[in-house]
Amino acid sequence: MKLRKPVTLILLITFFLACAGREPTPGVTDTEILIGNIQDLSGPMKELGMALPHGSNLYFNYINDKGGVHGRQIRMTMEDHQYNPQKAVAAAKKLIEQDQVFCLYQIIGTSPCEAIRPMLEENGIPLVAPATQSGTMSDRSKTGWKYIFHTDTGYDKQANILVDYAYELNASAKVGVIYQDDDYGENVLEGIAEAEARHGVTIQKEAFQRGATDFAGQVMNLNKGGATHVIIGGIVREPIIVMKTAAAMGYAPQFLGISPTMDHRVALGSGEAGEGFIAANFAQLYNSDTEGAELYRELFEKSGTDPKVMGMYNFYGFITAMVLVEGLERAGKRLTRDGLIKALEGVKGYDGKGVFRGITYGPNDRAGTEAVVLVENRGGTQRIISDWIE
Amino acid sequence: MTDMLGGLAQEVVSGIALGCIYALIALGFTLIYKATEVVNFAQGELMMVGAYVNFFIVTALLDIPMLDGALGFLLAFAGAVAFAFLFGTFLDLIINRPLKDEPVFSVIMATISMAIILRAVMALIAGPMTRLPLSPFGSGVIKVGGLFISVHDLFIISSAIVLVCGFYYFFNRTKWGIAMKATSEDPMAASLVGIPVKKVYRNVWIFSMVVATIGGVLLAPRTLLDTNMGFLGLKAFPAAVLGGFGSVPGAIVGGVIMGVIETVSMGTLSFYFPWVKEINDIVVWIVLIAVLMIRPAGILGREEIERV
Amino acid sequence: MADLVIENLEVHFSGVVALDGVSLNVREGEVFSLVGPNGSGKTTLFNCISGFVTPLGGTIDYGDLDLLSKPPHSIIATGISRTFQNLQNIPYMTVLDNVLLGNHSRIGNRETVRRWISRRQRELEEERALEVLDFIGLANYEQKYLSGQPYCIQKLVEITRALVSQPKLILIDEPAAGMNDQETMEIAKIIGEIRDYLGITVLVVEHDMSLVMAVSDRVCVFDSGNVITIGEPAEVKAHPEVISAFLGESVVA
Amino acid sequence: MKGRYDEENLKWIAPLIILVIVLPFLLRGATFSYRYYLYVLNIAGIYTILTVGLDLLSGYTGLISLGHAGFLAIGAYTSAVLVDQAGVPFGLSLIVSPLITGLFGILVGFPALRISGMYLGLTTMGFGFIVRRLIIALRTWTEGSAGLEVSKPVLFGFTFANDWHNYFLIYLFVIVVVVFARRVMKSKIGRALMAIRDSEHAAQAVGINLVRYKLFAFFLSAVLAGLAGVLFAHTMRFISTDHFDILLSIYFLIMVLVGGVATIYGAVLGTLFIVLLDFLAIPLFKDWLASFMAVQVADIQSLIFGCIMFLFIIFQPMGLYGMWLKMRIYWKLFPFNPKIKQT
Fold first, then answer.
1. Is-contact B167 B161, C-beta < 8 A?
2. Which of A251, C121, C194, D339 is deepest in the core (most CB within 10 A)?
3. In terms of residue numbers, what domain contains D70?
């Protein structure tokens, strides 16, 4: 109660300052908040480029129908970067300069996000929930770290947890990893190296190129190396082909996957070969009985979209939208970019209607959640088989 | 030691299967290059189009009770090939005809833009989702003396061999094939001796589209179907060059060499020599450059000698 | 004493004998013609002189210089330039640029840089080229792109390009091929002028006997890589072996 | 000597340079999002430096390169490592890094002495992949595929802090490179390179040393690509292997062709055309399209790009510069003889 006076005073001062010709916050009007999203809409990851924003829009529309955030409707405008960092920067400039968005949201891919770091700092514009699980997103030694609010558990942490889990399953396990030879894989390897040091073992590592369609050599090697547990750092196609190739060679280790392999189409596409595949995920499943997932399914059905779109990636777009909306709610009626940053820093243990373990930010903390659950494929469907693991 | 040899043998088998995929695409490159000296950068995309057309027909036929099995697949395949005929004609009409007097370079650029267009159009029609086509040959695996090979791969290998032999026979024994060869040597002289050069060009585009469709249909279950599948064309390109651009047997020789090198260097080589891991995705390129330094026109290619 | 002396030149192409111990010498200041049927080795001899073909045996000396020890691009520095049987022009350059190309060996690095800086230097260079173009009679063509020009113009441009480097010996390969009588006579006139006004030795390969007879000081007759006879035009015309071999009655008196 | 076309074109250079200088001010006056346009122009400028070099190699000399993104990457990474890790000043790196890239150019040039045409295109494409692999392997300096943050350019104590500053830095080099390249290509060297392209025999007969000139073409082309790379690294301020994709090399060749092969202005026009089309026109057009079409606009975006390219090549195979030349002749003769004169 004691605080009320200074707060009113500050509010009054800011009000007068605002009247004295202060520019309004870009992208914010009395009725609308404009946010910018850059997706890969026609490049190698365009599959995600459609699913993620669709999911986000489900939630934004839901909020808008309820009257919006502090009376403002959320509108999302999109650009395409084709997984090219340079196009990402151009698109970000366009969003900031031309479209005058309030904040950036959900930009996909590690290198595109890394490439726009200098811009974030220059413009003081926050980027909420970049759609990459790379641990480097919350690295505080990098330019513009202050403006990036990462929601997901890093690939490095996931890899670390998966190695632990493998040893938990079988103390004499021999772990191997097959990873994508790019920034994603690099981050996975960081986690692996950490786990190696902790367990005092060497883990067999096999790389493949982004876009590869044949993994015979790598799978052969894992077989020869006698790996009993194989961690797959791929997206959708890679785990399917890896598991099928292994099955064709009569090699049957326990496959474990980093969260991007968590799509239900991996379960569908790999068929028998993918039976028993366990993947990590940083959130509850879209078909779980949490409040958030129920809301998602309800909204999805109402939207009348092709049911094939429903799935983990679509749901991922949905849940990160919840985080952004939470931040906007907290930032209050008078919305500024700094205000959003402050508000997000105040988020502690936000569980997104039971979907997350708890998203926590602080003045020096941008990591979001750090826990995963494990999901298993059985008979073409996925179910959660563990509690939250940190 | 036996372990290593066993592994190597398995990798060679897998490599041959992979190489035959490259060979199927390389064959498409070769056919067009042979007659028109154009490198068709859209070859991978043609394959993608063929695979999608086949997939669409299969999906449509799934609803008809009689046609949801092998018969349906055959029908869909026939449909895709029929489409390939039309589409090949169409490509010849819009790429080859208007540019027939322009430098080859322009035609190559036209094929690059055609690749962009085909990818975009297919994405508009099919959407961005990866499709999961099922192999018409099931997921069976044959085991011969410790070596595994899937039935599907066997079909890929045999169709590559059949196609290459067929085209080899065609170019060397049949009237039309020889006419095509003559056209590639000297279109002017060919038209003077009564070879309908325009028709030859059109047929070449049709053939290459048909080969691409066959390749695409066989490939889709193995690599899954999305509109970026065409980038595999960029990997088959070195295979075609290694064998000798414009040489039909060269396509399969180059393809298989590429496939085996790739698999073995990713496999056994990386396993026993860890430093190979650092370079295993460029081993094929190093081999290719080395071969070209010794034989500038590829293994089975002919060097052209210019008269002064 | 810059005579071109060729001795015992022998060239084989994968078993086929192209030149079989050819010896001849070209004296300074004369027009020397090589005649003979297709495939008799005339162009091969040219290619040996200009370094494109390395012979199996024999020597080619120009003055004191051993030409065989030189790579093709150094030949021009010895004062020998050439034209080609099949046109070897740069179609997407103007006539003037094609001619300036012939100047290549005469411009050192320092002069190249000087020409980048000074417009006057460039103009001087162009004026010289224009003079030669004028000499050949192509002054009106300097700005035209070579592609699409008639064959005879292209042939003349090639000769101009060979001349502009101010050679002492010029090798002209079939200048009159594919030309009508009037154009052939034009070329004959030009060849004569090259010798008379520029003082350049000319070695020419030609099928057209009217041209050969009109301009040559001496004629050498080739057949299947062998020299049948060398002599003045009238002598050669009367040589029985030559007549029986291939000249026959087609000789235009 | 009146009427020599290169002297005639001099008339255009001064107004063009003035336009280049004035343009950012005009943009700032005209639109509040000028920095976005400047950024796109900066990319176009950097690419122009490279495509001019590519034109020297592939257009003039006829040695097709599908690996120029590799040279761009070498220039960029060399400079980033030199400046940020070895403490070399940016000004020095502007000279040293392109030269180092030039040495790589000579290295790649050696196969070109034997290999030609598409075979060479493929060899250079292989080079592009090898460079990518090299960057990842040297992760001690390059941070592998994670990408590298690069410092801002500092020249004579002045820091080029934003797109506005960078614009002038980049376009200074663009002007120098274009003027220099035009001069070189109109001299003995340019003629020699074109002679090599069209007839190696004629080239040798007039005294051109094929080995030296082919390697020189590769060297010069790589130096320009390296220069572009240095500017790229320090003005984009983040480089990763994703920037230097194989597709980028193909795009560079497209730029050269669209502009018109073997004309320096063509390379400039082609690059501007493609970059502006790709980065500016289509995104803006897409917004307009999206306002009344509820479709997946991204695919339409690349569809439009592909179609424009395709139609352009079909209807204007001589390239933009050829089109410009035709137009100029047309306007010159306009009142008297509207029929285009054949040259």
1. no
2. C194
3. 15-246
